[in-house]
Amino acid sequence: MDVSMKLYIVVFLLQVLFLSRSISCELLNLRQSFDNLSVFPSDFLFGTASSAYQYEGGYLSDGKGLNNWDVYSHNPGNLIIDGSNGDIAVDHYHRYLEDVGLMHSLGVNSYRFSISWARILPKGRFGEINEAGIEFYNNLIDALLIKGIQPFVTLIHFDFPQELEDRYGSWLSPQSQEDFAYFADVCFKSFGDRVKYWATFNEPDYQVKFGYGTGIFPPSRCSRPFGNCTDGDSEKEPFVAAHNIILAHTAAVHIYRTKYQETQGGSIGIVLQCTWYEPISNSLADKLAAERAHAFTVNWFLEPIIFGRYPPEMQSILGSTLPEFTATEKQKMNKGVDFIGVNHYTSYYVRDCMFSVCEPGVGTSKTEGFWGQSSEKNGIPIGKPAELVWQNVYPQGLEKVLTYLKEKYHNIPMFITENGYGNMNKADSTTEELLHDVKRAEYIAAYLKALSTAIRKGANVKGYFAWSLLDNFEWNNGYTVQFGLYHVDHKTLTRTPKFSATWYRNFLAEHSKVKYQQQAKDANHSPFYY
Ligand code: BGC
């Protein structure tokens, strides 16, 4: 062995030593940190999540129509910080088989993805069905099922045919309800024989706040001081758009329940962003402010869909700005979900801004409900600050938000439809650094542990999806922010597992072992066992 070889071995051993020291024992010892993995039942869905515009690319392939994000990202006035777009994204449209292979190697049993509406209905209900688009999703669904991976399908994750914007102003018009119902019907008919989990919308509160409040998402409508747009009314339009979305959801659920559910046997829900809002003090004012924060985000959609009315907090602040539901609509909305999809990334402290003066910021205006958010109290962060400014690692927040939803909505089944850790893809980051994402693994481990506690305490949670399988197009942040368990080289589109992928794979393998041991035990006790 020559000297350089010896040197190489010494450096290698030092690296291994350094790596294993920088990774906490708890992270590596799954049995120890999850004292009871069987708290996740054997039919629990463990998966990864994605969305069409962030993943697929193929933006003009095989008859796809243009969607709102295609048009927005090509408009030089857009607010995508690296000037990028989702034209290619991570090319999932052409590489889905490879990606299904990656999921299979992780050991997941479910994949949450969304359908590109413009790929199957390039002009909404005003044109033909694009059979090539239907074929793509058929192929993806079949490839997943062959590998034992359940498709969990979101109908819309922020992208819709531009035709609907150009014709009637999309969500500002009640016509959008008809279009969405038609789209949903096509999806149930085409894929519902194999898809057993449907979510109508992804985070509609962000869709309307960013599209019509601050204007940072298409159709970029807003008014001052909320944003700088050429047209719009931030104090009215978000509520009109949300109203049409709630009724579009209701129409899709009605179609599913009356035409398909009995024969297809699936369930249908909606995905909401469920940040945890912790009152900054024990004062009644701050507690009510935290309740208003929930009312103007998650309950804005869930209360109408489940109870047939807007949250009382919204009604009393917004008065006639809030559209009304007719008696027939209310009747139709009754218990309008089989499950709640919970997207959870972070938590904030919340203070009252109704009786106290707050500096302008998220939540403080009347339109948003007079509450102010902050990541810290007396200079101490709510949880360890993560790499992205808006994210703090506070796993108790997941437990708290699940308990909150459990109590408020009578423990309707829930899925954690997104949870993940973001990092900056800085110009000077090396691939090695990006692959060594111990913090992401620690984050996922801590949140899974909090989830197991919530389940043990009775939260009816049926699945967990890590956001995301791959680094992808992160909306206004383009490719500068990453959430993937797999690194994607955007020049070659090569996928490489990060440390977090290995951690998730080990976790799932450990869970499978526990699951099989449990099943064997149950079989031993079964009256049919001889
Ligand atoms: C969205 C995803 C996004 C993720 C991370 C969620 O709010 O649904 O599309 O990539 O947050 O920012």
From TrEMBL:
Entry-linked Gene3D superfamilies: Glycosidases (3.20.20.80)
Keyword entries, A-Z: Glycosidase, Hydrolase, Signal
First and last residue of the signal peptide: 1-25
One GO BP annotation of this record: carbohydrate metabolic process
Keyword Signal in record: yes
GO MF term (any one): coniferin beta-glucosidase activity
InterPro entries: GH (IPR017853), GH_1_N_CS (IPR033132), Glyco_hydro_1 (IPR001360)
Protein name: Beta glucosidase 46
Organism: Hibiscus trionum
